[in-house]
Specification:
Bound molecules: phosphoenolpyruvate
Strand content: 5-15%
Low-confidence stretches: 1-15
Distance between the termini: 23 Å
Largest sheet: 8 strands, parallel, barrel
Number of strands: 8
Mean pLDDT: 93
Number of helices: 11
Shape: globular
Length: 265
């Protein structure tokens, strides 16, 4: 099935509340050849068909120049996502990609506010909120990342930081515009340091409670930060953790599929 055809499962934006989602963020890795091999391994594997056929949203966010390689494979068993989008529809922004361009390239999702964007591209909470709004306007489901640094955690500012980051986004969108939230403690990204289930679960509960109070609806919240085939099952078993945003372990189909399988669906 090609991207022109209908997916077999509803996207988050069509749902009223929560969905299990496993999203892979490839960051700046991959070649056309490795991407094709990844896609072929994925679509051949019965675990992917089983999970997506039973409502798990599987999303791959490759670098923009590799979207076209995955596009012919997506739509049935997995969806495509961008890693970032500009807040403007178009303009003189060399090197940037708009949300509409991602839609054109076959995407249904886009990551916004990843800590690497906040850190290396100096994206403020306000810019992240504008990007979220731009993505929603283009028809994408944004995966909005929030998370504290190690210093902030040690200073017991975790709740303040993640709620501030979420609050700015909520002020920019209307309550019926659904997005996915990803709790990604900065100290756990790419470090091999995974948050314990208790640490992740506690922050997910805080975020969910805040969102429910503000929007009187529920929200899909993913955990991200060194998720791998070994720790995924325990994290995903927590009732407030709806899925995972996976960096390093999403680069190989074998480890990524093991995380999809760990959803238990
Ligand atoms: C990420 O890039 O969002 C991420 C969570 O990376 P990793 O899984 O490698 O920590």
């Amino acid at each position: 099935m090609t991207s022109q055809q209908q997916p077999s499962h509803p996207s988050v934006s069509q749902q009223s509340s929560r969905q299990t989602i496993i999203a892979g963020n490839w960051k700046m890795f991959g070649t056309a050849e490795s991407t094709r091999a990844f896609a072929e391994e994925m679509v051949r594997d019965p675990r992917l068909a089983h999970a997506s056929g039973n409502g798990v949203g599987v999303v791959i966010c490759p670098p923009t120049p590799l979207l076209h390689v995955l596009r012919p494979f997506c739509g049935t068993f997995f969806e495509l996502g961008g890693q970032d989008c500009h807040q403007n529809v178009n303009g003189a922004f060399t090197g940037d990609v708009s949300a509409g361009m991602l839609v054109d390239a076959g995407c249904r999702y886009v990551i916004v506010g990843h800590s690497e964007r906040r850190r290396y591209h100096h994206e403020t909470d306000d810019v992240v909120a504008q990007k979220t709004r731009a993505a929603l306007s283009a028809g994408l489901t944004p995966i909005v990342c929030v998370g504290e640094t190690l210093e902030e955690r040690q200073a017991e500012q975790t709740a303040d930081v993640v709620l501030r980051q979420l609050d700015v986004v909520l002020q920019a969108v209307s309550p019926d515009q659904q997005f996915v939230l990803a709790y990604e403690p900065v100290w756990a990204i790419g470090t091999g340091l995974v948050a314990t289930v208790e640490q992740a679960g506690e922050v997910h509960q805080i975020l969910r409670k805040f969102y429910r109070q503000r929007v009187s609806n529920d929200i899909t919240i993913l955990y991200g930060g060194s998720v791998n085939a070994t720790n995924a099952k325990e994290l995903l078993a927590h009732s407030d953790i709806d899925g995972a945003l996976v960096g390093g372990a999403s680069l190989e189909s074998r480890s990524f599929l093991a995380i999809v399988e760990a959803t238990g669906v």
